[in-house]
Amino acid sequence: MTQPNLLSASEAVARMRAGQLSVEDLALSCFARIDARDAVVKGWVALDRDRVLVQARELDRLGPRGPLHGLPIAVKDVIQTQDLPTRHNSPLYQDSFPAIDAGCVRTLRAAGALIFGKTDTTEFAATVRGGRSRNPHDSARTPGGSSSGSAAVVADCQVPIGLGTQTGGSTIRPASFCGVYALKATWGAINREGLKMLSPTLDTLGLYARSVADLDLLADVFDLEDRVSPKAVALAGARVAACRSPVWPKAEAATRAAFDTGIALLRRAGADVVDLDLPPLFDTLPDHHTAVMHGEARATFLSEDRFDHARLHDDFRAMVENRRRISKAALLEAYDVAAQGRMAFDAIAADFDAVLTPSAVGEAPVGEGTGDASFNSMWTLLHVPVVNLPGFVGPAGMPVGLSLVAGRYRDRHLLGMAKIIGPLFEAQGATHAR
């Protein structure tokens, strides 16, 4: 029998509902994997084994409580939890214990989920340095960031589901680097109450899993709803746009090869794949993303700066002090151009079943930095849903993902497309492995 920690979320829930697996046995299997691997992956920053096992036994006693009954979930440590500390990987919050759940965590608990522990992140999920977690495929490499620990522990089969956040590329890039599925939902579609936000205009909850079915299960729990009822689409005849995006020159060989292979696989399966060159309006969006992120961060971190300037990382002091010299006029321009871009992209995307685009510059880099978010920032600013699809492997043997994108509030449609395209890409990875 498959070890319980290796099961996808959907498989584990099905077995628990059928009486073939207890919540306690699933939790113990996850802890065994953590004991074997945490010294290498270093994904967790807060675990309370006794609390988890008490709650697991209580869930077994009560019987199925909801669609996520007994499912272990990792929570990024910028998301508040009532029974675990929320430290933001910052010396300013080492004694922080808010004793209240973020809205998303409350929703998961109500669905029967077992909140397992808190996962590593960079400081305030706002720097490219500071996280301790490592890529489960090669500990010399980063898992990406800032949702570093959540992506790593899901990829390493320590838990089936993880929560992240994204301001630039903090959900999708780690998913690509670690080789797991991820959804950055439409901005505002999932409650952000209780998340430490860097930028109110950008920050979005992210979801990690090892199958699209698991993401679909979470989409049900969070009541994600499309603006138009999604229709079933077959891969043969599906219309897919291949969008290299304005930052394509940054793509490394691994991403270029994965993108070309992905297009070839789709065409071989009967999809109609056409190149999409975005209008000039979109060329400025990466710079406008920077203006919004740093412009809003001035207000976000002002309180920390005034409270304890000496212990605040220089990256945050730079934002508060506006060393980039981002004027309010530039910030307003960024807001206005982004609004135009959202309407324009919704119209463009409406002509396709999905837009295929890179998830990251390339393979996970060696070292402490979390990698380049260039291929993610535009989509975050546009507020559109994005799904990372794993399956490709770069020259160093590391995972490389590709993203599917759609217009705003087409999350369920996008997951439907991921269900039919994901297995195609995963088979490519399996072939490479053989």
Structure description:
- This protein has 434 residues and is of the alpha/beta class.
- The chain folds into two domains: 4-221, Alpha-Beta Complex (Amidase signature (AS) enzymes), CATH 3.90.1300.10; 239-389 and 402-433, Amidase signature (AS) domain (Amidase signature (AS) enzymes, Alpha-Beta Complex).
- It is 40% helix and 14% strand.
- The protein has 14 helices and eleven strands.
- The protein has an eleven-stranded mixed sheet, sandwiched between helices.
- Helix 7 (212-221) packs antiparallel against helix 14.
- The radius of gyration is 20 Å and the shape is globular.
- The model has no long low-confidence stretch (mean pLDDT 96).
Content-based structural category: alpha/beta
CATH architecture of the largest domain: Alpha-Beta Complex
Task: Specify the helix fraction band.
Answer: 40-55%
- What profile does the largest beta sheet have? 11 strands, mixed
Q: What fraction strand? A: 5-15%
Pfam families: Amidase
Protein name: Amidase
InterPro entries: Amidase, Amidase_dom, AS_sf
Region (Disordered): 128-151
Describe this protein with a few key phrases.
Amidase signature (AS) enzymes; globular; 40% helix; 11 strands; 434 residues; 2 domains; alpha/beta
Topology, element by element:
Layout: H1 9-17, H2 23-41, E1 44-47, H3 49-62, E2 72-76, H4 103-110, E3 114-119, H5 148-155, E4 161-166, H6 172-178, E5 181-184, E6 204-209, H7 212-221, E7 239-242, H8 253-268, E8 272-275, H9 285-300, H10 302-308, H11 314-320, H12 328-349, E9 354-358, H13 374-382, E10 386-393, E11 399-405, H14 411-433
Helix pairs in contact: 2-3, 7-14, 9-12, 9-13
